[in-house]
């Protein structure tokens, strides 16, 4: 993976407000985004993801650090001197222009010859399937169509990087699913680097090549969707993406890189642990509900407990289990074809079994 | 948009608000035939109608008698255009009209340009040092009674007249421009505040320099506000009596100050004729202003 | 912004420089408007303040010599022969008349304006716009012409008197012109739209479900009006009252045309000091007095408005 770098942020901080009432929107963030990558910034509102995007676009300037676009420092260039384009959350289509005029705007501002502008606009209209509505005013088309025009307008100048600021949030669920596939298709077709900002984990998982999970102005983890979901390294990431059970356990022994970890049930498992975790330390294990199997209580089980609640979901059933020896609930999700839902009921004693690779030790 | 939503809310048929009357006996249904109107307040409609009649009766009378063939403004002596003709032939009226239009056009154009610049500087920004000061400065003419502004200008310009010997129309031009500024500023600012800054951001993102962004995005979108501001300034300048009366030098009557002078004498329907033309201009202006403002939402 | 800590950082100081440039540009952009206003609105006002403390010139104008006479003569007068100091009846009575007429005009405007605004606010959306338009038109038309229109109606030879005489109700024309009543009617006529518009603005926002709740809880129509609607539109009532009271107090044209020489208001008194009376310092002092009353009214309004806002927010 030695692909060329599209965007690099180095030790970027952004502070809003005046001295005394400062808000650190970004706190020493560094990230490298490769060319032709579909890169997603994921996090709850206020985590700094949009600020980072606006810094790359040039609508804000960093308080500290630098931003490189294909190796060139751009942190203090105005937006119109950066070869990046943005799809705005509100689309920001010019209401006094037609669809075609909107798409042509960037090219005209760059001073491209008329013939080239027309040609590119036609190609873009085709790409987003809006040829028939090209002479409409942007107020006369639907939200989904506006979304396409915004995309076409931003793609028309063939930017080095396309920035997308929660562009799907205004669409309804069905349209959003369609557009997710469309976006991915356009990214493949154009080969342009996409940086996508969202708070929707599902959106991030389905479209991205890589995801950066952000919280409180920091990037917590960067990785492929699988890495992020299967191997979260910190509690926030595990908690923010999908559902997770957290179980505290004690390290009783270290053998090389592996540690012997004693679960609340008294069962000891062997698992790789970090260098700085010594014997006697308490670690947190993250376990996805769907990676837990229900077994008979006893030797086979990693944890034992009593079912407190059974919730039927159609495709699967969720069991809430009160763990013996720990004042804790664990959620296990079992597919219904296994038939557990018919047998087990609240009050039954049950054993929980987890595949070793499904137990993830968190850093904090 | 919010207005529309509100409108729907208010527009709900009062009869449907209280559904309890529907199933009553025939007698009850008759008595409560149209439902209980929660918005009704007895006498309010009557008073409102009196108000509208009160507002329009004098104006309508004034217009009607401008067509009076007789010399009285109270006794009808048949229809005639004679007073319009006599007003048209009146050199003083002609001069005053030209002067009024010259001043109003100048004041409207200049005040709108500077107000547009000021509005661009004072909207859609985080607070910067002096912002409140600029606000207060621009809106100041609205806070001070006209007579006080007039007196202040009288004193100040008298001193300049003595010092420079200049007695031309310049004093009226600048005085009108100054008090028109807040009137031009307000609609432009209102329009700007409703304009999404993201459109200018989008233009900048699409390689438009600040000047091009202004030329191709901001100005076209702001234009209805600029027009509205300009028209408001024009009408305000055209209507002004007090400040003009105090600032003008000899022989610089505008139409309103000419009329004010004439009111001391015996009034003929010629005044009605002039007033009616004036009214017509104002009504055309308001209508355009109204339509411009409505298009925005 | 540029505290020592972040100024040492190049990126931060660059950002601060951008901020400074932005502020400077905004000032430059506002400058033409500010200069015109300084020259033809605010600067002259400062001169008025200065003039009010100068000695009056013999034939108008001032002499550049400090004197408290201008302010002194606002309420007091000195007999030319005996030097006895008495209250300046003429000034005080005009001041009181101005306040009185403005006050009653405001009350009348409220009595007529409230139901009118309510009527407009309770129309459906389409016709509401038309009614509002009808209220706005007089507001846009020349004040002098509107005053002239009133004069035509109430003159001795005007419509009202002609009509009453013709019907035999009265034998001699009623003297309406040149009375306080005429001035008040004129002020009411010209400033009524200024009462209706802000009232309408706050009535348009009434949530009529609250009115329903009032009726549901056994309130009569009067009580709903008194205890539900009125408190909801109180900011509009105050705004409208201020908007009518302030220009009434400073009115010049209406009292001049309808009040004649005897029924003067403050505006006319001020103007006279620069005409026949020729006491510029007194005129300046009276101007500042008028401005002060207006400012106090505005301040009260602003304080009230922010209080209401705080309560609702």
Q: What order do the helices and strands come in, and which of them pair?
A:
The complex is a heterotrimer of chains A (364), B (297) and C (313).
Chain A (H helix, E strand, L loop, with lengths): L4 E12 L6 E12 L3 E5 L6 H9 L6 E6 L2 E2 L10 E4 L11 H11 L4 H14 L15 H13 L5 E5 L7 H18 L2 E6 L2 H7 L2 E6 L2 E6 L1 H6 L4 H6 L4 E11 L2 E5 L5 E5 L9 E6 L4 E4 L7 E10 L3 E8 L5 E7 L4 H4 L5 E6 L5 E2 L3
Parallel strand pairs in A: 3-8, 3-9, 6-7, 7-8
Antiparallel strand pairs in A: 1-2, 1-4, 4-5, 9-10, 11-12, 11-14, 12-13, 14-20, 15-19, 16-17, 16-19, 17-18
Helix pairs in contact in A: 2-3, 2-4, 3-4
Chain B lengths: L1 H10 L2 H4 L8 H6 L12 H22 L16 H8 L1 H32 L8 H13 L2 H19 L5 H24 L3 H9 L4 H30 L2 H6 L7 H8 L6 H28 L1
Chain C lengths: L3 H4 L2 H42 L2 E3 L5 E5 L2 H7 E3 L6 E3 L1 H33 L3 H16 L2 H12 L4 H9 L12 H24 L4 H9 L4 H12 L1 H16 L3 H7 L6 H9 L5 H33 L1
Antiparallel strand pairs in C: 1-2, 3-4
Helix pairs in contact in C: 2-14, 3-14, 4-8, 4-11, 5-8, 6-8, 6-12, 8-11, 8-12, 9-10, 11-14, 13-14
Task: Please tell me about this protein's structure.
- The complex is a heterotrimer of chains A (364), B (297) and C (313).
- Chain A is α+β, with helices and mostly antiparallel strands.
- Chain A folds into two domains: 235 residues, 3-Layer(aba) Sandwich (Rossmann fold), CATH 3.40.50; 119 residues, RNA polymerase II/Efflux pump adaptor protein, barrel-sandwich hybrid domain (OB fold (Dihydrolipoamide Acetyltransferase, E2P), Beta Barrel).
- Chain A has nine helices and 20 strands.
- Chain A has a six-stranded mixed sheet, with helices on both faces. A five-stranded antiparallel sheet of chain A has the order 13-12-11-14-20.
- By secondary structure, chain B is mainly alpha-helical.
- Chain B folds into two domains: 48 residues, no CATH class; 213 residues, MetI-like (MetI-like fold), CATH 1.10.3720.10.
- Chain B is built from 14 helices and no strands.
- The radius of gyration of chain B is 26 Å and the shape is globular.
- Chain C has a two-stranded antiparallel ribbon. Chain C has a two-stranded antiparallel sheet with strand order 3-4.
- Chain C has two domains: 75 residues, no CATH class; 226 residues, MetI-like (MetI-like fold).
- Chains A and B meet through strand 6 and helix 2 of A and helix 10 and helix 11 of B.
């Amino acid at each position: 993976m030695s692909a060329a770098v599209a965007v690099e942020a180095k030790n970027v901080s952004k502070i809003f407000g005046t001295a005394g009432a400062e808000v650190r929107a970004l706190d020493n963030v560094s990230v490298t985004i490769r060319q032709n990558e579909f890169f997603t910034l994921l996090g709850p509102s206020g985590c700094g993801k949009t600020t980072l995007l606006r810094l790359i676009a040039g609508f804000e300037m960093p308080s500290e650090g630098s931003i490189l676009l294909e190796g060139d420092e751009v942190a203090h260039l105005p937006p119109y001197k950066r070869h990046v384009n943005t799809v705005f959350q509100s689309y920001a289509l010019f209401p006094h222009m037609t669809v075609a005029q909107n798409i042509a705007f960037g090219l005209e501002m760059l001073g491209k010859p008329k013939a080239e502008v027309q040609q590119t606009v036609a190609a873009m209209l085709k790409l987003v399937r809006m040829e028939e509505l090209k002479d409409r005013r942007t107020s006369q088309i639907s939200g989904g169509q506006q979304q396409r025009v915004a995309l076409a307008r931003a793609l028309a100048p063939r930017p080095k990087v396309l920035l997308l600021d929660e562009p799907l949030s205004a669409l309804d669920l069905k349209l959003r699913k369609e557009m997710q596939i469309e976006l991915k298709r356009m990214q493949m077709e154009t080969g342009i680097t996409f940086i996508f900002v969202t708070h929707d984990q599902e959106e991030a998982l389905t479209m991205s090549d890589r995801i950066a999970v952000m919280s409180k102005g920091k990037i917590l983890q960067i990785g492929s969707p699988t890495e992020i979901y299967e191997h979260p390294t910190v509690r926030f990431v595990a908690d923010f993406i999908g559902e997770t059970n957290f179980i505290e356990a004690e390290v009783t022994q270290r053998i090389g890189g592996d540690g012997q970890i004693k679960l609340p049930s008294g069962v000891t498992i062997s698992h790789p642990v970090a260098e700085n975790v010594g014997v006697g330390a308490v670690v947190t294990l993250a376990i996805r509900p769907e990676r837990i199997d229900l077994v008979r209580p006893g030797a086979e089980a990693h944890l034992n407990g009593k079912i407190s609640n059974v919730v039927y979901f159609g495709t699967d059933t969720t069991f809430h289990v009160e763990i013996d020896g720990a004042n804790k609930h664990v959620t296990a999700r079992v597919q219904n074809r296994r038939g557990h839902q018919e047998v087990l009921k609240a009050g039954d004693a049950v054993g929980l079994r987890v595949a070793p690779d499904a137990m993830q030790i968190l850093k904090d | 948009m919010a207005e529309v939503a509100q409108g729907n809310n208010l527009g709900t048929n009062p009869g449907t608000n209280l559904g309890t009357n529907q199933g009553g006996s025939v007698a009850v249904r008759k008595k409560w035939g149209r439902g209980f109107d929660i918005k009704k307040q007895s006498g309010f409609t009557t008073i409102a109608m009196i108000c509208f009649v009160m507002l329009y009766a004098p104006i309508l009378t004034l217009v009607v008698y401008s067509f009076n063939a007789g010399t009285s403004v109270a006794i009808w002596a048949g229809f005639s255009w004679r007073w319009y003709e006599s007003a048209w032939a009146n050199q003083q009226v002609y001069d005053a009209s030209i002067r009024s239009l010259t001043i109003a056009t100048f004041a409207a154009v200049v005040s709108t340009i500077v107000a547009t610049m000021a509005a661009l500087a004072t909207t859609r920004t985080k607070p910067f040092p002096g912002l409140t000061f600029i606000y207060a400065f621009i809106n100041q003419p609205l806070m001070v009674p006209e007579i006080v502004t007039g007196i202040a200008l009288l004193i100040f310009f008298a001193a300049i007249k003595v010092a420079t010997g200049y007695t031309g129309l310049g004093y009226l031009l600048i005085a009108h421009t100054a008090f028109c500024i807040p009137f031009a500023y307000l609609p432009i600012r209102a329009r700007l505040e409703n304009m999404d800054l993201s459109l200018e951001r989008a233009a900048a993102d699409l390689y438009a320099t600040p000047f091009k962004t202004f030329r191709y995005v901001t100005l076209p979108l702001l234009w209805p506000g600029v027009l509205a501001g300009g028209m408001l300034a024009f009408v305000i300048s055209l209507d002004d009596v007090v400040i003009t009366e105090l600032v003008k030098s000899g022989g610089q009557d505008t139409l309103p100050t000419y009329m004010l002078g004439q009111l001391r004498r015996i009034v003929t329907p010629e005044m009605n004729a002039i007033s009616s033309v004036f009214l017509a201009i104002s009504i055309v202006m308001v209508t355009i202003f109204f339509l411009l403002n409505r298009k925005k939402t | 912004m540029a505290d020592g800590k972040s100024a040492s950082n190049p990126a931060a100081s660059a950002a601060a420089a951008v901020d400074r440039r932005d502020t400077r540009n905004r000032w430059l952009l506002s400058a033409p408007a500010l200069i015109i206003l300084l020259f033809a609105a605010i600067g002259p006002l400062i001169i008025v303040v200065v003039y009010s403390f100068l000695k009056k010139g013999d034939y108008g104008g001032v002499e550049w010599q400090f004197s408290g006479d201008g302010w002194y003569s606002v309420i007091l007068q000195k007999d030319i022969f005996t030097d006895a100091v008495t209250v300046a009846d003429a000034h005080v009575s005009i001041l009181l008349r101005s306040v009185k007429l403005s006050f009653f005009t405001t009350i009348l405007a409220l009595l007529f304006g409230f139901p009118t605004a309510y009527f407009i606010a309770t129309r459906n959306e389409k016709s509401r716009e038309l009614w509002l338009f009808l209220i706005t038109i007089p507001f846009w038309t020349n004040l002098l012409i509107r005053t002239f229109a009133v004069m035509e109606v109430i003159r001795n030879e005007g419509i009202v008197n002609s009509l009453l005489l013709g019907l035999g109700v009265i034998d001699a024309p009623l003297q309406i012109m040149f009375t306080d009543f005429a001035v008040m009617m004129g002020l009411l006529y010209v400033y009524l739209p200024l009462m209706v518009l802000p009232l309408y603005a706050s009535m348009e926002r009434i949530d009529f479900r609250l009115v329903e709740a009032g009726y549901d809880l056994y309130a009569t129509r009067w009580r709903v009006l008194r205890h539900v609607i009125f408190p909801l539109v109180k900011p509009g009532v105050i705004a409208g009252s201020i908007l009518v009271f302030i220009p009434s107090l400073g009115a010049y044209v209406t009292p001049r045309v309808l009040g004649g020489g005897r029924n003067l208001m403050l505006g006319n008194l001020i103007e006279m000091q620069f005409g026949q009376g020729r006491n510029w310092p007194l005129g300046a002092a009276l101007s500042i007095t008028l401005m002060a009353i207006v400012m106090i009214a505005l301040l009260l309004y602003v304080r009230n408005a922010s209080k209401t806002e705080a309560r609702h927010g």
